[in-house]
Design goal:
Helices cover about 80% and strands about 0% of the residues. By secondary structure, the chain is mainly alpha-helical. Helix 1 crosses helix 2 and helix 1 crosses helix 3. It has seven helices and no strands. It folds into two domains: about 70 residues, no CATH class; about 40 residues. It holds the Pfam family LrgA.
């Protein structure tokens, strides 16, 4: 019964987020809005963490299973991925370096 309540709260936040996304004049993922709504509700303690903890842990424990369909779908594009592999890796590495530099610079500014 506890898991049903946990999933109901998570699903309600997702549905409200998707509803808000349809009202926005620009494209924005409803799942992100739902996640922000859940964060707000938990942070303000309008919803206690114990109400969603077990359901969230269950989802996290089985998260790898949720990525199997995505990985299987990518197998249809192996030749396309091989053609752009160098660009993909260089973009990911340059993004990582850029993020590290920006976060390091912000940290230095906050410390002084």
């Amino acid at each position: 019964m506890k898991l049903i309540r946990d999933f109901a709260i998570l699903l309600a936040c997702l549905l409200v987020g998707k509803g808000l996304a349809t009202l926005l004049p620009f494209a924005f993922p409803g799942s992100i809005l739902g996640l922000l709504l859940l964060f707000f509700l938990l942070n303000t303690q309008l919803i206690p963490l114990s109400w969603v903890h077990d359901g969230g842990q269950l989802i996290l424990r089985h998260m790898a299973l949720l990525f199997i369909p995505v990985a299987a779908g990518l197998l249809g594009y192996v030749d396309l991925l091989n053609d752009g592999l160098g660009l993909i890796i260089s973009t990911a590495l340059s993004g990582l370096v850029l993020i590290l530099l920006v976060v390091g610079r912000l940290y230095q500014r906050m410390q002084s």
